[in-house]
Write a structure and sequence with these properties.
By secondary structure, the chain is of the alpha+beta class. It is built from three helices and three strands; from the N terminus they run βαββαα. The protein has helices at about 5-20, 40-50, 55-70; strands spanning about 1-5, 30, 35. The chain has a three-stranded antiparallel β-sheet. Strand 2 (about 30) and strand 3 form a beta hairpin. The longest helix has 15 residues, at about 40-50. The two termini are about 20 Å apart.
Length: about 80
C-alpha cells in the first residue's frame, strides 16, 4: 500500500531528519504530493517514534503521518 502525504509534511519530515541527523527514506514526490511505501512509512515512524517522547513537534508529525497512513486525513493525488 502507498501512503500519500502533502508536500508540506514531506518538507517537515526532511527538515526533522536533517535536524536530528536521521537516515530516513525520502518520499517520491510529484508537483503536489509525496508517496511512501508501507516499508518506508514503518521505517520513518519507528525512527521518529523514538524521538517523539518529549518533543511536541516530532510527536505531532508522527500523529499526522499515522493519520495519513490510516487515511483519516486523505490527500488527493494530483494529475500532474
Amino acid at each position: 500500500m502507498v501512503t500519500v502525504i502533502p508536500l508540506e509534511t514531506t518538507d517537515r519530515l526532511i527538515q526533522m531528519a536533517q535536524t536530528h541527523e536521521l537516515d530516513l527514506p525520502v518520499p517520491l514526490s510529484s508537483g503536489c504530493a509525496s508517496y511512501l511505501s508501507e516499508e518506508e512509512m514503518e521505517t520513518i515512524l519507528e525512527a521518529l517514534g523514538l524521538l517523539a517522547t518529549g518533543d511536541e513537534a516530532t510527536s505531532g508529525l508522527v500523529a499526522e503521518l499515522r493519520d495519513y497512513r490510516e487515511q483519516k486525513n486523505p490527500v488527493m493525488p494530483c494529475d500532474s
